[in-house]
Amino acid sequence: MWKNQHTGAQTLISAVFWEPFCAATAIETLLRSGFDDSDILALGILGGRAPDLFEFLSSTGLPSIEAAYYNDCFRDGAVLLLVYLEVPGSERIALDVIRHYGGLQPPADEIPTALLQ
After folding, report:
1. Residues 6+ apart with CB under 8 A from 108
2. Which stretches of the chain are DSSP H helices?
3. Considering only CA atoms, which of 66, 81, 76, 75 is closest in space to residue 112?
4. What is the pLDDT along the chain (117 residues), one digit of tens a residue?
């Protein structure tokens, strides 16, 4: 079982990928860019019906609104990539890599209104 070892003042970047191979390439590029493999987590459902992962996603450090959004994305076959940033200034590199390979972050206008209250 995965245990969230990332707490405190770390920055968490999350993105959803609709193509698993794009997520894998983004991970490879992040590793080559100096990120540690223990700071990268990828989650996806390869087959069958996706279970409700809201509680698990919340335990990763995601805000509840994002956890709900990503939980819905799993039902459509998405892969979620989480990158915990330990090094100041590494956020720009991670975001550039994620966006380059098609990673999408939840747009505020697509988060269900009920979750914003």
Report:
1. none
2. 20-32, 54-59, 64-74, 90-100, 113-116
3. 66
4. 334 455 455 789 999 999 999 999 999 999 999 999 999 999 988 778 888 989 999 898 888 889 999 999 988 889 999 999 987 778 999 999 999 999 998 876 554 444 443
**Spatial separation of the C-alpha atoms in residues 105 and 18, rounded to whole Å:** 12
Please report the pLDDT score of residue 3 as a whole number. 43
- 81's CB contacts (< 8 A; 6+ apart) are 14, 15, 16, 17, 23, 26, 27, 40, 41, 42, 98, 103
Tokens at residue 42, please?
Answer: 């990828």
Amino acid identity of residue 116, one-letter, is: L
pLDDT in tens, 36-67: 999 999 998 877 888 898 999 989 888 888 99
Amino acid at 88: P
